[in-house]
Amino acid sequence: DSAVDPRDFLRIDEGLTGEESDIRDAVREYARVELQPHVANWYETATLPARDLAKGFGRLGVLGMHLQGYGCAGTSSVAYGIACRELEAVDSGLRSFVSVQGSLAMYAIHRWGSEQQREQWLPKLAAGEALGCFGLTEPDAGSDPASMRTRARRDGSDWVLDGTKMWITNGTVADVAVVWARTEEGIRGFVVPTDTPGFTANEVKHKLSLRASLTAELVLDGVRLPADAAFPEVRGLRGPLSCLNEARFGIVFGVVGAARTCYETALEYTISREQFGRPLAGYQLTQRKLADLLVEVNRAGLVALQLGRLKDAGTLHHSQVSLGKLANVRAALEVARTARSMLGANGISLEYPVMRHMANLETVLTYEGTEEMHALSLGQAVTGISAFRS
Ligand code: FAD
C-alpha cells in the first residue's frame, strides 16, 4: 500500500521544519557514505579513527550543533535529536561520540565555563579539531556520583587533582577532559588539558558492547592546574547532572534510529527469505513480530519528538527526559532482541547490524542513568517521595 511508508509509518517526520528535515537528510547521507561501510569493522576490531571522525562530524556541523555561538550551529533541539537518530541508526557508539563531545564536554563548557574557557575550547571542539571527554563516573561511584573520591585541593592559587575516573568515552583521544571533583566547597568541574603532567588515560578493553567507541580509565595523579581551570560558579551535582540531562535527550532520539534499523533489517530479511515454501514474512507469527516492532519504533519516535518540542519551548523537565530515556531505550532493546530472533542464525552475525545494535543497547540502558535510576526518578516525580537513598 503506497499510502503508508514502512520507514515512517506515522509520518512523524512531517512534523519537522524544513531545516530539521534538511539536517536529517544531510546526516543520513553522511552516515550512509562515511560511516556505514566501516562500522562493522570498527566494531569487530574495537577501533575508531577518532581524529578523522571528529573532523568529518565537525564539517557536517553536528558537534555541539544545538549550542549558540563559538562556532556552533545553533540549531533547534529537535534537529540535534534527529541527527542523533540518524547516527545511532548506524551505531550507538557513533552517536555516543557526538553526544560526549557536544552534550557533555561542550555543553559543560558552554553552560558553566568562563568566557575565556569558552573561547579557548568551543570553536576547536565544534570544528572537530579538538576532542573532549567528560569524567564523572569512578570505579566506586556510578549511579551515586555524590560518593566520588576524586579530590581537588588548593595549593596556593593552583588546584591539584587526584583520583580515578572510569568508563570515560573518548578518554584516550581527548585533548581536554571536563573532570568533576570534590572540593572544600562541594563538587566542582575542572577543564583539564590532557597533556597536563600527572594525567593518564588507559583504554578499557574486553568490552562486548559499544565496541565502536573508545572507553578509558582516567588517572589523575597530582594534576596541577591554574586557579582559572575550575568552572567559576557552579557547585554540587547540579553541574554534572545538567550535562547528563542534555546527553540523555540525545539518547531518547538516538535509540529510535537503532530500533528502526533493526526493524527494517527484520522486515527486508523476512520478506526475502523463504522457509517451508513461503517467505518468512508470510507467517502470522512473523507478522505479529513485525507489527510489534513497528509499534515500538513509532511510539518511541513520537515520545522523542514531543520531548524535543518541549525542549525547544524551554519547558522540558528532567523527569520527562527520564521518561523518554527509560521508555525508548527499553523499547529499542526489545525491538533489537525480537529482530535478532527473526534473522535466525544470521541474527547473531556481524554481517547484519542487529546483534551489534542489541549489544550496544545494553550499554545505552546503563549509561546516562540506569533504567532503575530513571524509574526511581519518575517515582519521585509522581509521588514526591525519594526512594534513592536510605
Ligand atoms: P552501579 O551504580 O553500580 O549500578 C549497578 C546496578 O545497581 C544497576 O542496575 C543500577 O541501576 C542498580 N542500582 C544502583 N543504585 C540503586 C538503587 N538506589 N536502587 C536500585 N537499584 C540501584 N561515565 C562518565 O562519567 N563519562 C562517560 O563518558 C561514560 N561513558 C560510558 C561508556 C560506556 C561504554 C559505559 C558502559 C559506561 C559509561 N559511563 C560513563 C559510566 C556510566 O554512566 C555508569 O556505568 C552508570 O552511571 C552506572 O554506574 P555503575 O556502572 O557504577 O553501576
Structure description:
With 390 residues, the protein is α+β, with helices and mostly antiparallel strands. 52% of the residues lie in helices and 15% in strands. It has ten helices and nine strands. The protein has helices at residues 18-45, 50-60, 77-88, 92-112, 115-127, 238-272, 284-313, 318-342, 354-366, 371-383, and strands at 132-135, 151-155, 158-169, 176-183, 186-193, 199-203, 215-225, 274-275, 278-279. It has a four-stranded antiparallel beta sheet with strand order 2-3-7-6, with helices on one face. The chain has a three-stranded mixed beta sheet with strand order 1-4-5, with helices on one face. Helix 1 packs parallel to helix 3 (77-88) and helix 6 packs antiparallel against helix 7 (284-313). The longest helix is centred in the middle third of the chain and has 35 residues, at 238-272. The termini are far apart. The model has no long low-confidence stretch (mean pLDDT 97). Flavin-adenine dinucleotide is lined by residues 100, 134-137, 142-143, 167-169, 210, 215, 363, 366-368, 370, 372-373, 388.
Would you count the extended β strands for me? 9
Broad structural category: alpha+beta
State which percent range the strand residues make up: 5-15%
Major beta sheet, strand line-up: 2-3-7-6
